[in-house]
Every structure is written in C-alpha cells, then in structure tokens.
Write a structure and sequence with these properties.
Blueprint lengths: L1 E6 L13 H9 L4 E5 L2 H4 L4 H13 L5 E5 L7 H11 L6 E4 L1 H4 L7 H12 L3 E3 L9 H10 L5 E3 L8 H10 L3 E5 L4 H10 L5 E3 L10 H11 L4 H15 L6
Parallel strand pairs: 1-2, 2-3, 3-4, 4-5, 5-6, 6-7, 7-8
Amino acid sequence: MIDCHTHWHPDWSTDSPSDPKRWLEVLDRHGAEHAVVLPTRGLMDDTVILADNDNVAAVCRASAGRMIPFCTARIWQGKGAVEEIERCLGALNFRGIKFHPWLQGAPVNHPVMDTICELAASAGVPILCHDGTPPFSMPSQIGLLARRHPRATLILGHCGLLEFWEEAIAVLRRFDNVWGCLCGPHPGALRQIVLSAPLERLCWGSDFGFGSTDLVGYRLRLFRAAGLGPQRENQILNENPRRLLQLPAG
C-alpha cells in the first residue's frame, strides 16, 4: 500500500527534526510501504518555506526510501518561487510539488504557475494541489491549469472533499493529465468517483501528519466502507501510485 497524501511536521520527530521513526511506526501499523510526504509549516507560514522544504528532504533521506518528498514555494514571490522549485527538484531531489491555493492564498491561475508546470513536466514529477475549498481550490480551476499544460501531471489532492466530488469526477473525465487522490470524500462519494472516473488515474491518501490522530486507519476504513472489491482496491492503493511515482512493482 502507498499513501499518496501525508504531511511531515517536526513534532513527530523523536531524537531530531529529521528522525522519522515514530512517524513510520504509524504507516507500519497499516502496512504502508511508501508515502508521499508534503510540507506542513511551509504551507501555513511563508517565512519558513525554505527551512520546511529542507526538513522534508532530510527526513525523507532518513527513511530508507520509504518517504517520497514533495516541496512547495511561495507563488507570490514570482522568480523566487521558481528558483525554490528548481533548488528542490535539483539539489534536494524532490519527487513532486505541493500547493495549497486556499491556505497559501495564491490561485492556481497565477502566471508563475505556468512556469512551474513546465518545470514539473520537464522533470517528470507531478504537482499535487489541495482542492475542494473555494475560492482558490476548486477541481475545475486545477482542470483549467491542466488544459493549459498538457505535458504536466496534476493531482486533485482531495477529489473535491465532501461537497465538490462531482466536479472532481467531471475534471478527471475531461483531462487525461489529471489524477485524483481519494482523501476526504465520504464512502458514497468515494464509490461514485471510482465507478465514474478513470480508474487508472486514482490513488489514495490519508492526510496523516497534522497531529497524533491516526488518520491512516480512519481514511482506510472510509475507503474500504465504499465496497469497491479487492481488485479495485489493489489498483488504487498499490498499482496506480507505483506508476504515478515511478516506483518498482510490489
């Protein structure tokens, strides 16, 4: 199993800010082999973005390859945002990019996103965007970005959450460079997304890492309550994310 939506915060460290032991114990409890790791502090405080990216890179290096790092940037910085993405994808070997347009206060149609999408496409890494929260984080807005950049791979980080999952389905069906992460919709919506959207572009995530709550177990129970069957579950939890993240078959 691969968790495609988690966060790292130094509060989870045991001996140092880059110690993943306690964090990985939660994934071990549920049989998760790998996890996409997104920033936390940098999404909420622009002044610590560089330090937070460095922390994510360090803890992922200490995880023996199990934690897959995604970086972020301050879109309003323009050239500075592009330079930070270039630093992360280059020297720090990040495997993807994360934006939270609503929390970061930066719409996905900001001009610098065009440059970042092309950078991501050239590097062969996906961009995961929070979605399901107006006014900056709607699935359709991310879909329009995907239309402008057909070489880029964009991920709806929540498949519309509780209210906009039908919009997420429409976007997934319209744009073949958009993936959906099943992290947030209720079981009925999860089932409809899986039955209506392209199955080969769906993955699953827990949003684990914001606190001590075991979100991995909670989201897994919701996912399995959708009654998708073992074949679909395996494709979403294992096969699809391995292809998305270029991981070996397992």
